[in-house]
Each structure stands twice: as structure tokens, then as C-alpha cells.
Write a structure and sequence with these properties.
The chain has helices spanning 26-37, 53-62, 87-92, 111-123, 139-150, 163-176, 189-197, 241-248, 257-272, 278-294; strands at residues 12-18, 41-47, 67-70, 84-85, 97-101, 104-108, 131-135, 155-159, 181-184, 200-203, 229-232, 252-254. It is an alpha/beta fold. Strands 2-1-3-5-6-4 form a 6-stranded mixed beta sheet, sandwiched between helices. Strands 9-8-7-10-11-12 form a 6-stranded parallel beta sheet, sandwiched between helices. The structure holds 2'-monophosphoadenosine-5'-diphosphate.
């Protein structure tokens, strides 16, 4: 019998709080990186019931956790228990990563950074001066819109079924960052024009996500052109109907696996203050892709 010595009294603790957490792939990512780097840290998912968030957060602090991720449905609610929230996370209205130092809780949002790193890595270009159309105006859209403005996008057009939510995101961007955002509803002709004129189109809705594999985030087919980069935050299926149609038109297509990967990497970097090298990241990402596609 082999003695399992992976966890000792010195092992640093990190994890995820949310509900549900059963299907998360984050432990695979974080624990693989720790083993590869020889860092003595373990990542555990923890399901937290509706009334238990405050107790969970103070419990993690009392248990001397290094930090934790926060997922649905607590990314907004957790903010009231955090001592210091980064400017990006405040604008994004959500915290998904917390670091605990000397009994203080520091909150970050790594979703926007995850999006931007995966976009650059997979498209080979940056977001600067791009005309971008976003479909959807939920939590993911808000984080991405803030990041797009911070990275110097020339124009951000938010199109959403419920137009008031698109308007809210645009006001946030225009009032706090740069006046580059405009919003449309599904019935506005300008929405179609923006789609045609854009350099980048991003689906931030859940339409098309398993099991809704026939879902499409816009009420009519989009006229993609080959010069466009088309991004879907969904990674299951790995190619949504939206991405399949864009690919058929010759576009560069990117799914949400990279965003998931890099938001986790950025959280890992925040907790450990270790900056992961390019080659190592590419290697881990290809393994991560294999693992997630087989789970
Ligand atoms: P998340 O945090 O993952 O972004 P969310 O905050 O619930 O999730 O936001 C979901 C977004 O997807 C919303 O913009 C929603 O549109 P509405 O604001 O009109 O509800 C959009 N969405 C969800 N299902 C959709 C569908 N079938 N077609 C188009 N948009 C959809």
C-alpha cells in the first residue's frame, strides 16, 4: 500500500463556493497546476446553501484559507463580505476571486481578464480599436464590456432581448470608462448594421448551451463575413450553432473554454503570486481541453 502524502499540515487551502458545484472543472485546473509547479496547495469545491454564504465566508477566513473562487449564484452577494474590492470588480458588479491576507478579504473579478487573455491568445490580435458587438446583457456581458472599454475597444454595441439591461451596461461603461458604448434591441435596424460593421461579435447569452444546442442568440441568422472574429462564451458544446455558422462563413471562431481557463489562471496567480510562463500555459491548456472534452 502506498501512503498518500499529497495533503499535510502545511498544505495551503483554496476552493470554490457556489451552488451547484458538482460539475465544476476548476479543481482539475488548479490541482493540476499545483502538481506541475510543485506547489503545496489544494483546491476543493464547496456547495453553499442559500442562507449559508456569510457563515461560509467567515468560516474560510477562520480556517486560514489562502483564498477562494465564487460562482453562481453568489458573485454579487459575496461583495458585502469583502473588505477591499478591486476597481474592475466594482465596475463589473461581481467578485469571483477572493484572496485572504492577514485576516482581510480582497475581492477581484478575473472573468474579464480571462476573456481578454483567451481572445489575444486564440485570435492573435488585441481588442484595441476594435468595433465589438455583444449579444446579451447579463453578468458575463457586464464583465466583458468593462474589459473591452479598459482595453481600448473603439465601439461596444450591446444587443439584448431585454433592451433595458443593454442600456444599463452601456451607461456603466460610458459614465465610468469611455463613451464608446451603444445599445439596441432585437427590433432595431441599427442592430443589424452594427453586426455587419463589427470586427468582433461575442455571444454572452446562454442560448446554444447544452442541452439547448439548437439555440441561437439572435432572432434571425447573422450575416457573418470572413474578416470577423466570432467568440462564444459557451464551451459546451465546443462549437455552438452560432460558432458553426460563423465558421461556415470563414470567420475566426473561439469558444469559451479559454475564458474559463484564463480566469482560473489569473485567480491562481493572485493567490500564489506566481506568474505562469507562456509555454507552461499552452501545455496545461491543451491538457485542460482534453480533460473537459472527456468529462
Ligand atoms: P450570465 O451571468 O451567464 O451572463 P445572466 O445574467 O442570466 O447570465 O444573463 C443571461 C443573458 O442571456 C441575458 O442577457 C439574457 O437575455 P434577457 O436579458 O433578455 O433575459 C440572455 N438570454 C438568455 N437566454 C436567451 C435566449 N434564449 N435568447 C436570447 N438571449 C437570451
Amino acid at each position: 500500500m502506498n501512503i498518500d502524502s499529497r495533503v499535510s499540515g502545511k498544505t495551503k487551502l483554496v476552493g470554490l463556493i457556489g451552488n451547484p458545484v458538482e460539475h465544476t472543472v476548476s479543481p482539475l485546473l488548479h490541482n493540476t497546476i499545483s502538481s506541475k509547479l510543485g506547489i503545496d496547495m489544494i483546491y476543493v469545491p464547496m456547495k453553499v446553501e442559500k442562507d449559508g454564504l456569510m457563515d461560509a465566508v467567515s468560516g474560510l477566513k477562520a480556517l486560514n484559507f489562502t483564498g477562494f473562487n465564487v460562482t453562481v449564484p453568489y458573485k454579487n452577494e459575496v461583495m458585502k463580505f469583502i473588505d477591499d474590492i478591486s476597481k474592475d470588480a466594482l465596475l463589473m458588479g461581481a467578485v469571483n476571486t477572493v484572496k485572504i491576507m492577514n485576516g482581510r478579504l480582497y475581492g477581484y473579478n478575473t472573468d474579464g481578464e480571462g476573456f481578454s487573455r483567451s481572445f489575444k491568445e486564440e485570435s492573435g490580435t488585441t481588442l484595441k480599436d476594435k468595433k465589438v458587438v455583444m449579444l446579451g446583457a447579463g453578468g458575463a456581458a457586464r464583465a466583458i464590456a468593462v474589459k473591452l472599454a479598459l482595453e481600448g475597444a473603439k465601439k461596444i454595441t450591446v444587443i439584448n432581448r431585454t433592451v433595458s439591461k443593454a442600456e444599463e451596461i452601456c451607461q456603466l461603461v460610458n459614465n465610468n470608462l469611455h463613451p464608446v458604448a451603444e445599445h439596441y434591441g432585437w427590433d432595431d435596424v441599427e442592430a443589424d448594421v452594427s453586426l455587419e460593421e463589427s470586427d468582433v461579435i461575442i455571444n454572452t447569452t446562454s442560448s446554444g448551451m447544452f442541452p439547448d444546442v439548437n439555440g441561437y442568440p439572435y432572432p434571425k441568422p447573422i450575416n457573418f463575413s470572413a474578416r470577423q472574429i466570432v467568440y462564444d462564451v459557451i464551451y459546451n458544446p465546443s462549437k455552438t450553432r452560432f460558432l458553426e455558422e460563423a465558421e461556415r462563413c470563414g470567420c475566426t471562431v473561439i469558444n469559451g473554454l479559454g475564458m474559463l481557463f484564463y480566469q482560473g489562471i489569473y485567480a491562481y496567480e493572485i493567490w500564489t503570486e506566481v506568474k505562469l510562463g507562456e509555454e507552461l500555459l499552452k501545455d496545461i491548456f491543451s491538457q485542460f481541453r482534453c480533460i473537459t472534452e472527456s468529462t
